[in-house]
Amino acid sequence: MGKWTTGDVVIAICAVICIVLGVVVAPIASGSVWIPLLLGFALVAMLVQTRRQRLRRGR
């Protein structure tokens, strides 16, 4: 894989925080589980897409 940029790391950290909030905190607080999970998975998808594009440009 390519080198991780600061933006990649920030997006990955935000995605992990959203997923953890959705899985751990939201059920305890009896809130909506789907919103943080969807945000987290959207951030993961965005990260994967940007890294793939960067790898294609590097070839």
What does this entry show, briefly?
The protein has 59 residues and is mainly alpha-helical. The chain has helices at residues 6-28, 34-58.
Question: What does the model show?
Answer:
The protein is mainly α and 59 residues long. The protein has 2 helices and no strands. It has helices spanning 6-28, 34-58. Helix 1 packs antiparallel against helix 2 (34-58).
Number of strands: 0
Major sheet details: none
Tell me the distance between the termini: 12 Å
Q: Radius of gyration, Cα only, in angstroms?
A: 14 Å
Per DSSP, the total helix count is 2
Q: Which term fits the overall shape? A: elongated
Helix content: over 70%
Low-confidence spans: pLDDT under 50, at least 5 residues?
A: none
